[in-house]
Design a protein that fits this description.
The structure holds 3 protein chains of 3 kinds.
Chain A: H1 2-17, H2 25-45, H3 56-72, H4 77-99, H5 104-124, E1 141-142, E2 146-147, H6 151-174, H7 176-186, H8 188-193, H9 198-224, H10 234-247, H11 254-273, H12 276-291, H13 295-308
Antiparallel strand pairs in A: 1-2
Chain B: E1 3-4, E2 7-8, H1 9-40, H2 47-65, H3 69-90, H4 100-122, E3 138-140, E4 145-147, H5 148-170, H6 172-182, H7 184-189, H8 194-216, H9 226-241, H10 246-266, H11 274-285
Antiparallel strand pairs in B: 1-2, 3-4
Helix pairs in contact in B: 1-5, 1-8, 1-9, 1-10, 2-3, 2-4, 2-8, 2-9, 3-8, 5-6, 9-10, 9-11
Chain C: H1 2-18, E1 28-34, H2 45-59, E2 62-63, E3 66-74, H3 79-92, E4 95-100, H4 104-117, E5 121-123, E6 140-142, H5 147-160, E7 165-171, H6 174-189, E8 193-200, H7 208-216, E9 221-225, H8 228-240, H9 243-246, E10 248-251, H10 256-262, H11 264-267, E11 271-274, H12 282-295, H13 301-320, H14 325-332, E12 336-338, E13 343-347, E14 353-354, E15 357-362, E16 375-381, H15 383-387
Parallel strand pairs in C: 1-3, 1-4, 4-5, 5-6, 7-8, 7-9, 9-10
Antiparallel strand pairs in C: 2-3, 11-15, 12-13, 13-14, 15-16
Helix pairs in contact in C: 2-13, 3-4, 5-6, 8-10, 13-14
The chains are: A mainly alpha, B mainly alpha, C alpha/beta.
C-alpha cells in the first residue's frame, strides 16, 4: 500500500502545482468536475454493478439548480451548491426507487426514460432558458470572503472538494456498507439469503452516486458560468460511461484516468481531426468492451498481480 | 366544423392517420430489435445506425450507381444485412457469454463510429431523396390529403411485420430459431449450424432496420443523425411491447405512433417524450411489457 | 510500482499537452467559432474560415507590423462549447477578435464572454435581434442580418401580396421565437392577423402533424419560423401534403444553400430576405467566382459577411494604430463600411451593423438561365428601413426621445 500512498502524494503535489506549471486552470477544473462525476458514477457501476443510462440527469439538474439560484436569486455560491446537491439527491431518490425494482437492461432503460423526462423538463421550464441555457452565472464569494472570480482561488476550492469526494468514496467502499454492496454485486441471491435487504442497499448506493454527481454538476456551473442542455443530455451520460469503462470500473483511480483521457481527447482532438472525434470515441468504446474490459487501471492492476504471483514449486 | 374538446375532428383524424404512418416505422424498427433481442439476447444499440445506413445505401445507390427506389428496396437491406453479418462474426460473438450489458455497450460504440463517420464524410445538412414517380401524388381523404407514399409505407410495414411474425412463430425455421435461443448446444447436436443461424438472425434484424431506412428516405432528409434520435424511441417501444415478443413490438409500435400523433394535437412540445412517459409507467406497473414473456 | 509511475507519466503528458499552444507574443489573433459539422455547417462553416483567411491575405497578412493568425473551432451548436473556447482563446492565446458563426444561443453566450474579457466579437451567423437589445454588450457587433430585418423584408412583401392571415411553424428555441415575434409584429402592423402558432422541437424528423394543424387554422400564409434542415424539411412536407395548395409558405430565413438543396421546382416563388447575393454586381460576382472555384458552390451572405467583417476590423485597427479593444470599438462605431458586402454600412450604438437588405423572390426553373441563378430582386430596403429604429432595450443605445 505504500506504493499507492506515494503515487497519490505525487499526484497531489502535481495537482497543487498546476497553476505554476502554466496549465490552463479552467481546463483542470473542468477535468476535476468531470472526474468527480465519473467517480460518482463508478460507485454505482463499478461497485454496485448497476448500469445507469441517464446519470447526466443528476449532474445537470444540480447544475441548473445552482446556476438559477445564483443568477436569479443572488444566493451565495456555498448555499447554492448545497441546494444543487440536495436537488440531485432528491431526484436520485425518486429515480432510484423507481428503477431499483428492475435489473440489468430494464434498470438501464428506466434510467434512460426518466433522464429523457428530466431533459424535457429542463428544455421547457421557463427558468432554465431552454436551448440557450443559463448564461452569465456569477461565481460570488465563498463563505462570504473567498473571491471565486479568480480562477486560481476557484481551482483550489474545486481541488479540495475533489480530494474530499475521492476520499469519501474510498471510505464508503471500504466500509461495512461497501462490503455488503460488493456482496450484492457478486452474488445477489446469496446476499438475500443472508438476510440483507438488497433493495435498500442498492437505493442508498444510487442516491449517493446521484448526490455526488450533483456536486460535480453544481461546481461545473460555477466554473464555467453557464448551464446548458448538454449537461442533461444523452451524450453526457454516454461520456461518463465511457470514462468509467475506459479507466476501469471497480477501481478508484480508473474513472479519474478515464475522465482525463476523454476530456483531453474531446478538447484537443476536435482541433486536429474535427468531426472524427465521435467515431474515434466509438472505436475506443468498442476496443474497451472487446479486449479492455477492466479498463486501463484494471488491466494494470491485473498485470501487476500476475507479476507478483509466486512461481509454482 | 365538428369539434371534440375544442379540436376539429378533421385535425384529430389527420393526426391519427399520421400517427399510423409513424407507428409503421416504429413497428418495423422495433421488429428488428425484438428479433435480435428475442433470439440473441443482444440489445442492439446500433439499430439506428443500420437504419441510417439503409437510407444512405438508397441515396448513394441512386447518386452513384443510378439504382432506383424499387431496386433499392431489395438491395439496400441485403447489403446492410451483409454488413450486419460481418459485424456479428467479427465483433459481436465475443460478448455472447458475458453480461448482456457488454453487448449493449459494444453496439453503442458501433453506433458512434457509424454516426461519426457518416457525419464527417457527408455533413449534417442532409440530402433529399426523390419520391418514386409511381407513388407521387396524394389521396384526398376528406379530412386531409394523404400522400400516396405514406399509405405505401403503412402497407409495406404491415406486410413485412406480419410476414416476419408468421415466419418466426408459425414456421419450422422460426421454431428452430426459437429453440436455438433456449438451448443452443442441444439444437447444435441435432445438426443445425447454430452460429450460422445466429449470424443470419442478426443480419435479418439489421436488414429490417435498413428497409425502414429506405422507406424513410423520401420522407425525411437523409443525414447522419437520422437514426440516433429514433433508436432511443424504438427501444422504448420494444420495452413497452415486451422485450422478447415479436407481436408485442409490432402492436406497440403502431399504438405508440398513434399516441404520439394524438399528443401532437394536445401538447405538441411533449410529443418527443410521451413515449418515455409510457415506458416508465409500463416498466413500473407491468414490467414484462404489454405482451412480454420474461 | 513502475506501472503506476507510467500512469502518472501519461497523465502528466496529457496535462502538458492540455496547456495548449503558447501565447503567440506579437501576433494579432483572429478567431472563428462556428457550426462546422452540424445543421448550419454549409451556411458559414469551414468555407467561412477559408474566407476569413482570404481577407487576412488580401489585407496583406500583417497589421501594425504584426503577423495575423486565424484560429477556428466547432461549437457544435452548443453554447457551452462556444463560450468555453472563446474564453480559452482569450486567456491562453491572446485573442484579439472573434467572428461568431451560426446559432443565436451560442452567440448570446459568447457575447457575454466578450463583455467580460473585452474582446470584440462580430456576430456573423446568428439571427436573434436580442443581440442588439437585451443581450447587447459594448464589444459585440451584429453584422449580417437579424430577425427584425428578415420580418420587415419577407413578411411585409407577403402581406402586401395578399397574405393577410398567418399561422406559424416555429422552431422551439430563441431564434425561432424571436423570428415569429418579429414577423407577427409586421403582419399586424400591415393590417394582417396572426391566427396562431405551433412550436416544433428543433431538428424534428417529421413535420406532417404540425403542418396539419397549420392547415386546420385556415390561414392564408404558413410562416416558417425556422432555418436549415428544419426549413427544408417543413417545406418539402408542406408540398407533399398539399398544404401549399391552400397556404402560401413564407421562408422567413433561407440561405442560397437551402434553395440549392431544395431545388427550384420546390422553392420557386418563395420570398426571402438576404443581405447579400453573389449575382448583384461585378464586385459580388468576382467574389462569387473566387468562392466557386474553390468550393464548387456560390457563397451565402454569411460567408461574404465574414470576409467583410474581417477586413472591417483590420481597417479599424490600422486606423487607430492599436488593438486596444475600447479604441477599436470606438473607431468601428464611427467609420463607414464600403466593400463587396455593403456600401455605406455603419455600426450603430447598440452594435447593429446597418446596411441595405434585399427582398428576393426565387426564380422559376424557366427563369433561371445558369447555375445558381436563383433570385430576382423584388425590393431593396435601406438599412434604416430594414433594421428599424433603436428600441431602447440596449443600455448602450437609449431610444431617442
Amino acid at each position: 500500500m505504500r506504493a499507492n500512498a506515494i503515487l497519490y502524494a505525487l499526484l497531489g503535489l502535481f495537482a497543487l502545482c498546476v497553476p505554476l506549471l502554466g496549465i490552463y486552470p479552467v481546463f483542470m477544473m473542468q477535468l476535476l468536475c468531470v472526474a468527480m462525476f465519473a467517480c460518482a458514477y463508478n460507485l454505482l457501476l463499478g461497485f454496485g454493478r448497476m448500469l445507469s443510462f441517464g446519470h447526466a440527469a443528476f449532474f445537470g439538474s444540480a447544475a441548473y439548480a445552482t446556476g438559477w439560484l445564483v443568477t436569479a436569486h443572488a444566493w451565495g455560491p456555498g448555499a447554492a451548491i448545497l441546494a444543487g446537491v440536495v436537488v440531485a439527491a432528491l431526484l436520485g431518490l425518486v429515480v432510484g426507487s423507481l428503477a431499483i425494482r428492475r435489473q440489468g437492461i430494464y434498470f438501464a432503460m428506466i434510467t434512460l426514460a426518466l433522464a429523457q423526462l428530466v431533459y424535457f423538463v429542463c428544455l421547457e421550464a421557463p427558468f432554465t432558458g431552454g436551448e440557450n441555457g443559463l448564461q452569465g452565472v456569477p461565481r460570488g464569494k465563498l463563505l462570504g470572503f473567498l473571491p471565486l472570480k479568480s480562477d486560481l482561488v476557484l481551482y483550489y476550492v474545486v481541488l479540495a472538494v475533489f480530494i474530499a469526494v475521492f476520499l469519501f468514496i474510498r471510505r464508503v467502499v471500504h466500509s461495512p456498507f461497501g462490503q455488503v454492496l460488493k456482496a450484492i454485486r457478486d452474488n445477489e441471491a446469496r446476499a438475500t439469503s443472508l438476510g440483507y435487504e438488497i433493495n435498500r442497499y442498492k437505493l442508498l448506493a444510487f442516491v449517493l452516486s446521484a448526490t455526488l454527481a450533483g456536486l460535480a454538476g453544481s461546481l461545473k456551473a460555477l466554473v464555467f458560468g453557464f448551464v446548458t442542455l448538454s449537461d442533461v443530455d444523452q451524450s453526457t451520460s454516454g461520456d461518463v460511461i465511457l470514462m468509467t469503462l475506459l479507466g476501469g470500473t471497480g477501481t478508484f483511480f480508473g474513472p479519474v484516468l478515464g475522465a482525463a483521457v476523454v476530456v483531453t481527447l474531446q478538447q484537443y482532438l476536435s482541433d486536429l481531426v474535427g468531426g472524427w472525434v465521435t467515431a474515434i470515441i466509438g472505436a475506443i468504446f468498442v476496443a474497451c468492451v472487446l479486449s479492455f474490459r477492466s479498463g486501463v487501471v484494471g488491466e494494470l492492476l491485473a498485470w501487476r498481480a500476475r507479476r507478483v504471483k509466486p512461481a509454482p514449486p | 366544423m365538428t369539434t371534440v374538446l375544442g379540436i376539429p375532428v378533421a385535425v384529430i383524424l389527420g393526426q391519427l392517420m399520421l400517427g399510423l404512418v409513424n407507428g409503421s416505422f416504429y413497428a418495423l424498427l422495433s421488429l428488428g430489435l425484438a428479433v435480435i433481442f428475442g433470439l440473441m439476447r443482444v440489445v442492439n444499440f446500433a439499430h439506428g445506425a443500420f437504419y441510417t445506413l439503409g437510407a444512405f445505401a438508397a441515396l448513394l445507390g441512386l447518386q452513384w450507381l443510378g439504382i432506383n427506389y424499387w431496386v433499392s428496396l431489395l438491395l439496400a437491406p441485403l447489403a446492410v444485412g451483409l454488413v450486419g453479418i460481418v459485424v456479428e462474426r467479427l465483433l459481436l460473438r465475443h460478448v455472447y457469454g458475458l453480461d448482456p450489458l457488454y453487448g449493449l455497450l459494444l453496439t453503442f460504440g458501433l453506433a458512434l463510429i457509424c454516426q461519426g463517420s457518416l457525419h464527417q464524410v457527408f455533413g449534417a445538412t442532409g440530402q433529399s431523396y426523390p419520391v418514386p414517380p409511381a407513388l407521387a401524388g396524394a389521396v384526398n381523404l376528406g379530412f386531409m390529403f394523404l400522400p400516396l407514399y405514406r399509405a405505401w409505407v403503412i402497407f409495406v410495414s404491415l406486410l413485412v411485420c406480419f410476414s416476419t411474425w408468421f415466419v418466426i412463430e408459425r414456421t419450422r425455421l422460426g421454431a428452430t430459431l426459437r429453440a436455438a435461443t433456449e438451448n443452443a448446444p442441444l439444437v447444435q447436436a441435432f445438426g443445425v449450424n447454430v452460429p450460422l443461424l445466429v449470424a443470419a438472425t442478426y443480419g435479418s434484424g439489421v436488414a429490417l432496420a435498413a428497409l425502414a431506412g429506405v422507406l424513410a428516405s423520401p420522407i425525411v432528409l437523409v443525414n447522419s443523425h437520422m437514426g440516433s434520435s429514433l433508436v432511443i424511441v424504438v427501444f422504448a417501444v420494444v420495452v413497452i411491447g415486451g422485450m422478447g415478443s415479436i407481436l408485442g413490438s409490432i402492436v406497440s409500435g403502431l399504438l405508440l405512433g398513434v399516441v404520439e400523433g394524438f399528443t401532437k394535437v394536445i401538447y405538441p412540445e411533449a410529443s418527443n417524450v410521451v413515449i418515455f412517459v409510457v415506458m416508465a409507467l409500463v416498466l413500473i406497473l407491468r414490467p414484462t411489457g404489454l405482451f412480454g414473456k420474461d | 510500482m513502475k506501472l503506476r509511475m507510467l500512469t502518472l507519466a501519461i497523465l502528466a503528458a496529457l496535462a502538458a499537452a492540455a496547456s495548449g499552444p503558447t501565447l503567440a507574443a506579437d501576433e494579432v489573433v483572429i478567431g472563428d467559432i462556428d457550426d462546422m459539422s452540424g445543421v448550419y455547417a454549409d451556411v458559414m462553416g469551414a468555407a467561412g474560415v477559408e474566407v476569413v483567411k482570404w481577407a487576412v491575405a488580401d489585407f496583406g497578412g500583417t497589421v501594425l507590423g504584426r503577423k495575423i493568425s486565424v484560429l477556428s473551432a466547432d461549437h457544435q451548436n452548443k453554447p457551452d462549447i462556444g463560450a468555453a473556447k472563446f474564453r480559452e482563446w482569450a486567456d491562453q492565446n491572446g485573442l484579439n477578435f472573434l467572428l461568431g458563426g451560426s446559432n443565436t444561443g451560442v452567440n448570446i453566450a459568447m457575447a457575454k464572454v466578450a463583455a467580460v474579457k473585452h474582446v470584440p466579437i462580430f456576430n456573423i451567423g446568428p439571427g436573434g435581434a436580442s443581440l442588439t437589445n437585451e443581450d447587447c454588450t459594448a464589444y459585440s457587433v451584429h453584422y449580417t442580418y437579424d430577425t427584425v430585418a428578415l420580418a420587415n423584408g419577407t413578411a411585409t412583401a407577403i402581406v402586401n401580396a395578399g397574405g393577410k392571415t398567418w399561422f406559424y411553424l416555429t422552431a422551439d428555441y430563441a431564434f425561432g421565437t424571436q423570428l415569429q415575434a418579429a414577423a407577427s409584429k409586421v403582419v399586424e402592423g400591415h393590417g394582417g392577423k396572426n391566427l396562431g402558432a405551433v412550436r416544433v422541437p428543433l431538428g424534428a424528423a417529421d413535420f406532417s402533424s404540425f403542418l396539419l394543424q397549420a392547415q386546420a387554422s385556415g390561414a392564408q400564409v404558413l410562416g416558417l419560423s425556422n432555418a436549415g434542415t428544419d426549413f427544408s424539411n417543413s417545406l418539402k412536407a408542406a408540398n407533399e401534403f398539399g398544404i401549399t395548395k391552400t397556404m402560401k409558405p413564407a421562408a422567413l430565413l433561407a440561405f442560397i444553400t437551402d434553395i440549392h438543396s431544395l431545388g427550384l421546382p420546390t422553392a420557386q416563388g418563395l420570398y426571402l430576405t438576404t443581405a447579400w447575393y453573389w449575382d448583384l454586381n461585378p464586385e459580388t460576382r468576382t467574389f462569387g467566382k473566387r468562392f466557386y472555384a474553390k468550393f464548387n458552390r456560390e457563397p451565402t451572405m454569411d460567408q461574404a459577411g465574414a470576409y467583410s467583417a474581417t477586413l472591417t476590423y483590420l481597417r479599424a485597427v490600422k486606423a487607430v494604430g492599436t488593438t486596444d479593444p475600447d479604441k477599436v470599438m470606438a473607431e468601428l462605431k464611427r467609420a463607414k463600411i464600403n466593400d463587396l458586402f455593403t456600401t455605406g454600412g455603419y455600426i450603430r450604438a447598440d452594435g447593429a451593423m446597418i446596411h441595405d437588405m434585399y427582398v428576393m423572390q426565387v426564380k422559376t426553373p424557366q427563369e433561371s438561365k445558369y447555375p445558381w441563378d436563383y433570385y430576382k430582386v423584388v425590393k431593396k430596403m435601406s438599412g434604416e428601413e430594414a433594421f428599424g429604429p433603436i428600441t431602447g432595450l440596449c443600455p448602450l443605445a437609449p431610444a431617442p426621445k
